[in-house]
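TA notes, week 10

Several of you asked for a full example with nothing omitted. So below is the full record: structure tokens for the whole chain, then the designed sequence directly under it. When grading your own attempts, check the secondary structure regions first.
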């Protein structure tokens, strides 16, 4: 039986998959089981920050596997301590909680916000405002937090306590910020929602109003974080640090990890026994995370992301079928004229280029390490298929 048949016979059909079996990868190129190469403008949905099998990352991960692969959170490990210290230093946060995915990082943030408010004000101040067109994950709670009706189906009842406000609508935000609200949660750039950035005015209003009312700000940087937009956190481009920030996707270079970061005010909210995760802070994932941080801190990676992002954006804008580009750094979304994004993504695949879609847009999240040469090659393929 071939892989696809075996796969479909044994794994739930929750994804629309392309009929390709990926076998290996080197740098920014993936190779399927037939030996066909693909330039990667998607990096496994922004997870393979340093491309495939980056040498230093492989070494760090393999060294860790050979030393200690896991222990429970009843004990301490140096690698988790080292990684957390460096994460806090580069982001300005005070304390981290490690989980294994973006959804888990967001669950932690939601629990933290509710408990912060409960501890200080008692019951009833539990509502969290999230934005329409947002995406926060697939667990019941993070689905409930996700402000898109399409996700609120089948699995009733959903978790109570979320209110959805239109992104960039300050009036609607004000109307909903009453004394039952403990937090506002948002993506600076809505990734799954189509790569839609928040306006500066709106972000200003969120931080101002939340600050005045002791309402926590939660930035879901699961997709925008870890250098993706040309700063370690996208919030830095807006000049803000939320009380709580969540990271996942690219954090460990392709190993499963999510983290919830809390500032000085929130660092002690989740005390002993209030939260946990068996695999959270797994040493191998931490070693991978440290290797990603090494690259970001010890090279001009972030500057390169900004420059290459501009370069890619300018090249894409020269394609007549692309009418609009949004995003920052190496997180870009392209609106197409007269073409369907899903069909174009399939056609790109056939022509040796991996791209993502988000809503009706093409979405590009190449590895942070992509070269100009590969950007050029990828854009040539896009030009060809869009024409
Ligand atoms: C991908 C994503 C998530 C969910 O992450 P998982 O690791 O799939 O649980 C949450 N928020 C945002 C903004 C994301 O892009």
């Amino acid at each position: 039986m071939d892989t696809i048949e075996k796969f479909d016979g044994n794994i739930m059909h929750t994804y629309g998959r392309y009929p390709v079996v990926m076998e290996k990868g080197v740098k920014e190129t993936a190779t399927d089981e037939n030996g066909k190469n693909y330039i990667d403008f998607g990096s496994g949905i922004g997870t393979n920050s340093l491309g495939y099998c980056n040498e230093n990352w492989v070494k760090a991960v393999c060294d860790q596997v050979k030393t200690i692969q896991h222990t429970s959170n009843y004990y301490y490990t140096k690698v988790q301590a080292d990684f957390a210290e460096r994460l806090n230093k580069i982001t300005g946060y005070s304390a981290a909680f490690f989980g294994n995915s973006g959804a888990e990082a967001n669950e932690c943030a939601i629990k933290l916000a509710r408990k912060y408010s409960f501890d200080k004000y008692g019951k009833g101040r539990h509502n969290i405002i999230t934005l329409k067109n947002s995406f926060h994950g697939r667990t019941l709670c993070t689905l409930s937090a996700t402000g898109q009706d399409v996700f609120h189906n089948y699995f009733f009842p959903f978790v109570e306590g979320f209110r959805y406000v239109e992104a960039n609508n300050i009036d609607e935000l004000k109307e909903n910020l009453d004394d039952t609200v403990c937090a506002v949660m948002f993506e600076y750039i809505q990734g799954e929602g189509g790569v839609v950035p928040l306006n500066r005015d709106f972000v200003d209003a969120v931080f101002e109003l939340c600050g005045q009312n002791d309402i926590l700000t939660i930035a879901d940087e699961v997709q925008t974080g870890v250098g993706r937009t040309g700063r370690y956190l996208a919030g830095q481009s807006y000049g803000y640090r939320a009380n709580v920030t969540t990271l996942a996707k690219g954090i460990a270079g392709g190993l499963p990890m999510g983290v919830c970061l809390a500032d000085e005010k929130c660092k002690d909210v989740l005390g002993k026994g209030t939260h946990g995760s068996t695999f959270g802070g797994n040493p191998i994932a931490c070693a991978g995370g440290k290797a990603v941080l090494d690259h970001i801190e010890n090279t001009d990676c972030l500057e390169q992301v900004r420059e290459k992002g501009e370069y890619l954006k300018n090249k894409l804008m020269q394609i007549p079928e692309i009418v609009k580009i949004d995003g920052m750094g190496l997180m870009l979304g392209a609106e197409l004229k007269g073409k369907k994004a899903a069909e174009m993504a399939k056609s790109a695949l056939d022509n040796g280029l991996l791209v993502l879609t988000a809503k009706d847009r093409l979405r590009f999240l190449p590895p942070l390490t992509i070269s100009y040469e590969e950007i050029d090659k990828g854009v040539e393929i896009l030009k060809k298929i869009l024409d």
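The mean pLDDT is 98. Use that as a sanity check on your answer.
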